[in-house]
Design goal:
This protein is α/β, with parallel strands linked by helices and about 550 residues long. The protein is built from 20 helices and 9 strands.
Length: about 550
């Protein structure tokens, strides 16, 4: 439950709107119950009054009729305003939670998030956050309403008959304690099962969509359906169990309602016979109890959602509470000039968390400023990891890295990103235009600069031949462009970033030898006086380096 308290505290951000929403919900509940109660009394009182001419003439028809119309009007207005206010409040909370969760993810990128599947993160960001909208609408609000209404209705009935009030309170409390305890215990397991099944289905769906071409080529029609069918069946079974438990909760509340009404009849009729209460008052109490139990059924239903909501909260907090693999300094440190970019690896070792095998062991490497260094070695030797340490995606488990004789840990994230450009093996292309994928929200970059770098990576003719040119959408993951074209887009990004240290991880992948040679020649002036580090198996590219380091 502690995880839910964390999110309940976040509701206090909108405490005024929360109070207004609760007040409107209370007005809606009171007006609905009062409308049925008064209508029952009115019909019964009118019937009793009609038994004799004197009482029929004396009966005041207009006041109760006017109050009924007023209650109906209040009910309509409060229902509308309650829906508007409650949903507006809920949407604001969801917006706040999404922003909060995204803020928690930023320090974890990319090191911790590499251990999470994209479908699982999507499920947490969308489904788990959406599940928390139950916290107010379907959990907190019903409990709050029920407590107030139970107290008020008991006092109201007690004004007419204390025995009837005690019976109503006793059976109402019995129902509100016993049924939620049963549904809460079973609902937690079912809610967790639904969340896990939803997660599995979403992960598998994302995986299937991302690998659709391979599935289409290598998996037959029957097996394609089976890829998602197991997760779908598991989810449907869990939802069926939840629906059955919901039916039990509603049926149990109706059972207690029937028992309460029977006891009120059993005790109330003698009270009417002895003129301790009127027949109309007894009818009013009966309608009041019916309306109360009908409203209070939301409490067992809320306990059903509590398990699902708590599990969603736990999943979000498990990610949010992770300690970032890299913590940057808040103190700005700027290199004086390009000549300060010498890099030193001092006895650097690295192993991934919870893995005993070291990827790097006691690396000593000095890279003078302005050097063009090639790094080569067999797959799995740690070439990419070495550059990830330099970009502070991870920190060494032993030793330290210096840049300009300053420990890398002393640089703020902004300063480090300004100093280093990293072209990774796996380039992410946004579902946006060519312009947006090149500038990455840097508004100061002009179209002339874009065309200039596109010419250097030999994409200018292709882009200019497109109808929309720089405004052409690249598609999700760059599906509208080839792998080689995407690789050149990533090189163009690095050129636009214009950092004093540029790292290229397998830049020639997907490119012909002569094309890579021309691109490198076109970029000679951009690379001049800069520290260039190239991880590659391309012998032609290694031949252009000042030095080659083998791992």
């Amino acid at each position: 439950m502690s995880s839910l308290w964390f999110f309940i505290k976040k509701l206090s951000t909108y405490r005024l709107q929360l109070c207004v929403s609760l007040a409107l919900s209370l007005a809606l509940a009171v007006s609905s119950i009062a409308l049925l109660t008064l209508s029952g009394w009115f019909i019964s009182a009118a019937a009793f009054a009609g038994l004799a001419a004197t009482t029929a003439i004396a009966f005041n028809y207009f006041i109760p009729a006017a109050v009924i119309r007023l209650l109906a009007f209040i009910r309509i207005l409060s229902r509308y305003q309650d829906r508007v206010t409650s949903h507006d409040f809920t949407l604001k909370i969801l917006s706040t939670l999404r922003v909060w969760f995204y803020q928690q993810l930023i320090p974890l990128t990319p090191a911790h998030l590499l251990t999470h599947r994209s479908g699982d993160l999507l499920n947490r960001f969308v489904n788990d956050v959406n599940t928390l909208d139950h916290l107010y609408l379907n959990v907190l609000s019903p409990f709050f309403m029920t407590i107030i209404l139970s107290a008020g209705i008991t006092l109201f009935i007690g004004y007419f008959s204390l025995p009837l009030a005690l019976i109503t309170l006793l059976l109402l409390l019995t129902a509100l304690i016993s049924i939620p305890l049963i549904t809460l215990k079973k609902g937690k397991k079912i809610g967790k099962a639904i969340q896990e099944a939803t997660k599995a289905l979403r992960i598998k769906t994302v995986d299937c969509l991302q690998g659709f071409l391979d599935i289409l080529l290598f998996v037959n029609d029957k097996n394609r359906v089976a890829l998602l069918n197991d997760e779908h069946v598991t989810l449907m079974r869990a939802q069926k169990r939840l629906a059955q438990l919901k039916g039990f909760a509603i049926g149990a509340m109706q059972f207690f309602s029937g028992i309460t009404l029977w006891l009120i009849f059993f005790i109330g009729i003698p009270l009417v016979h002895n003129n301790l209460i009127s027949g109309a008052a007894l009818a009013m109490i009966i309608f009041l109890v019916m309306a109360t139990f009908e409203h209070c059924v939301s409490v067992p239903l809320a306990s059903l959602l509590l398990g699902k909501t708590e599990h969603a909260a736990n999943r979000l907090l498990r990610v949010a509470n992770q300690t970032p693999a890299v913590i940057f300094s808040d103190t700005p440190i700027l290199l004086k000039s390009m000549t300060d970019t010498q890099i030193s690896f001092k006895d650097v070792s690295f192993s991934y968390l919870h893995r005993s095998i070291s990827i790097l062991n006691h690396i000593h490497l000095d890279i003078p400023a302005g050097m063009h260094l090639g790094i080569t070695g067999p797959s799995g030797s740690g070439k990419t990891t070495l550059m990830q340490l330099l970009a502070r995606i991870f920190d060494p488990t032993q030793g330290e890295i210096l840049m300009g004789n300053i420990p890398l840990k002393n640089f703020s994230e902004i300063d480090l990103r300004k100093t280093i450009s990293l072209v990774t093996q796996h380039v992410h292309i946004f579902n946006a235009s060519v312009r947006d994928n090149l500038t990455l929200m840097q508004a100061h970059i002009t179209d002339d600069s874009l065309l200039s770098v596109l010419k250097k990576v030999e994409l200018l003719e292709l882009i200019e031949a497109l109808p929309e040119q720089l405004n052409t959408l690249m598609g999700e993951f760059g599906k509208n462009f080839s792998g080689g074209q995407i690789r050149r887009i990533s090189i163009a990004r690095a050129l636009l970033h214009n950092a004093p240290i540029m790292i290229f991880d397998e830049p020639s992948t997907g490119l012909e030898d002569h094309l890579m040679a021309r691109i490198w020649k076109n970029c000679e002036m951009d690379f001049k006086d800069k520290t260039i580090i190239v991880i590659t198996h391309d012998e032609n590219l290694l031949a252009k380096m000042d030095r080659v380091y083998s791992m």
